[in-house]
Design goal:
The complex is a heterodimer of chains A (297) and B (260). With 297 residues, chain A is an alpha/beta fold. Chain A is built from ten helices and 13 strands. Chain A folds into three domains: 140 residues, P-loop containing nucleotide triphosphate hydrolases (Rossmann fold, 3-Layer(aba) Sandwich); 64 residues, no CATH class; 69 residues, 2-Layer Sandwich (Alpha-Beta Plaits). In chain A, the strands form three sheets. Chain A has a six-stranded mixed beta sheet, sandwiched between helices. Chain B is mainly α and 260 residues long. Chain B has one domain. Chain B has eleven helices and no strands. The chains are: A alpha/beta (297), B mainly alpha (260). Chains A and B meet through helix 2 of A and helix 1 and helix 6 of B.
């Protein structure tokens, strides 16, 4: 069966800059993650999928149609781009009413949908405020609401929580999980690992316009935690001479140990060694590497 | 083709333009001021200074107006139609340029175009809505300004010379040209929208259309061209053909990427 959204061997360039190079992504129902650093091509990919850009080669199919030419398809797929710009001189409500009309909604329908979403995102109190007076985070909430006005079957989300507070970001995540449960297709672009691993999702890593094969969490953590430093906190300090014998030992400071691991699987080995030597592990943590380093070739 | 969507685009653009005093005030106040002041100045010169400024161009005036009687009414009739008329003919170009530039290049500058083009709107619906948003105010404001300046002129002429000077056929043809001048300005904005980065660039390019119109009074004063009804009819025909070409190529070259 054909996937709901397919980008097949897509190449898109901007003068001399390569946006996408032979990129293939297929997204079925549920959530698919596009993970990559700034400038990797995430936004270009989503814009191609949303019918804003026409690729030089390859093909885009959304529900079987080409979103660049087939205008009706864009009723079924909604793109939330990373600039979330609004008409600044107009109120939030007027902005939403305008877009609602373009999606074929009545004003009452738009109002009902907006009320529901903005309340969930704690932004309904700004509905009569001019968009130009809003903070970046609130603008992003309104833009999320705008993207949902057409009650689409698929969402293309470009870093939708970049400027949101933790609570609102989590509310967006919960909302997306609900949509996924309802059988909708969600393509979620992010550069944050914690977001990429937040959902039960397929993960595609993108770098310099190229897309890796589909990854599972194990593959991803294999990349993330390759030669990484991991901190282990113990309930009580142990003798440093003993600790030095621990596999992958790097350093020790009080009750905190650091290990350097080749892969995430090494963490168990160190932790087991500590437990076998009577230590109580109370926390294991690692510093997330820069996404650029993490996805290095 | 869903005209409701075009209407929504038009209404949104108009509400953007008319929610900003910085845009609409100069667009309305300046022409209105001139529509009142210029006929008053013309009247003053005709009545009190006919031997000075007026006498220098009265030869041309009598030739165009078609009377040999040199004096205030002749000068006022000449100046009101053949000098002020072309000046006010810049109004549809200026207004349409300002709104169209804000509408097309403004979407690019404000980065609102992505959200707009992500909706199920077609290019045709988008263009019709945006062109109507620039065309209608330009034509309405031009008619209003011509009505004001015509009324002031007639009022003063009737008080001083007991005669109504307007409308005459050339003046009516100038008004009739305003939709075509607006369309030309809008078409140029559509054509250049892919190549400009912002509102000012688009506005400046389309405003260049004002130059040939502003040359008209001088061609008349220096006797290069007689601004007769035939002249205006020929220019209007030329404009219609030019409009069709500009709009055809504008629409043909317009892609979503033009305003992204």
């Amino acid at each position: 069966m054909a996937p709901e959204i397919l980008a097949y061997r897509v190449t898109k360039t901007f003068k001399k800059t390569v946006g996408l190079k032979d990129a293939t992504v297929s997204a079925g129902k549920g959530i698919s993650i596009i993970l990559g650093p700034n400038g990797a091509g995430k936004s270009t990919l989503l814009r191609c999928m949303g019918g804003l850009y026409h690729p030089e080669s390859g093909r885009i199919r959304v529900f079987g149609g080409d979103p660049y030419y087939d205008d009706a398809i864009r009723k079924r797929v909604s793109l939330l781009s990373d600039n979330y710009a609004l008409y600044d001189k107009l109120s939030v409500l007027k902005n939403l009413m305008f877009f609602g009309r373009l999606y074929g909604n009545t004003d009452q329908e738009t109002l009902d949908i907006s009320k529901d979403i903005l309340k969930r995102l704690n932004a309904y109190q700004f509905i009569d405020r001019k968009a130009g007076e809003l903070s970046r985070g609130t603008k992003q909430k309104v833009a999320i609401c705008r993207a949902l006005l057409g009650s689409p079957d698929a969402f293309l989300l470009d870093e939708p929580t970049a400027f949101l507070d933790a609570l609102s970001a989590e509310e967006v995540h919960i909302m997306l999980e609900e949509f996924a449960k309802d059988g909708k297709t969600i393509v979620y672009a992010t550069q944050r690992l914690n977001e990429a691993t937040r959902f039960k999702a397929d993960i595609f890593v993108i770098k310099k316009g190229r897309i890796s094969k589909k990854l599972g969490y194990g593959d991803l953590y294999g990349k993330v935690l390759k030669n990484a430093k991991v901190d282990i906190k113990l309930a009580d300090a142990i003798d440093e001479r003993v600790a030095r014998k621990m596999p992958h030992f790097k350093s020790m400071k009080g009750s905190e140990l650091a290990i350097i691991i080749r892969s995430y699987k090494d963490i168990n080995e160190s932790a087991k060694w500590l437990m076998d030597h009577g230590a109580y592990v109370i926390k294991i943590d690692y510093t997330e590497p820069m996404i650029e380093d993490m996805l290095a070739d | 083709m869903d005209f409701k969507k075009s209407y929504a685009i038009m209404a949104n653009d108009l509400s953007e333009v008319f929610s900003s005093k910085a845009i609409y005030m100069p667009m309305i106040a300046v022409p209105t001021f001139f529509a009142i002041m210029l006929p008053i100045l013309t009247f003053y010169v005709s009545t009190y200074n006919i031997s000075g400024i007026a006498s220098r161009i009265i030869g041309t005036a009598t030739a165009v107006v078609g009377t040999s009687s040199i004096g205030g009414p002749v000068f006022m009739a000449y100046f009101s139609v053949y000098v002020l008329g072309p000046i006010f003919m810049t109004m549809p170009i200026f207004t349409a340029s300002v709104i169209a530039a804000d509408s097309f290049a403004g979407e690019k500058e404000r980065k609102t175009s992505e959200a707009l083009l992500s909706t199920p709107i077609t290019i045709q619906e988008l263009l019709i809505g945006k062109m109507a948003a620039s065309f209608l105010p330009a034509v309405v404001l031009t008619l209003a300004v011509f009505a004001i300046y015509g009324s002031v002129t007639n009022y003063l002429a009737y008080k001083a010379f007991n005669a109504y000077l307007l409308p005459n056929l050339s003046w009516i043809l100038m008004i009739a040209m305003s939709p075509f001048l607006s369309l030309a300005a809008i078409g140029i904005v559509v054509l250049v929208s892919a190549h400009v980065q912002g509102i000012k660039e688009a506005q400046q390019i389309s405003s260049l259309l004002i130059l040939p119109v502003l040359v008209l009074p001088f061609t008349s004063i220096f006797g290069v061209v007689d601004l007769t009804p035939t002249f205006f009819a020929v220019v209007m025909l030329f404009l219609i053909v030019a409009d069709l070409a500009i709009i055809y190529f504008g629409i043909k070259s317009f892609k979503k990427e033009s305003i992204l």
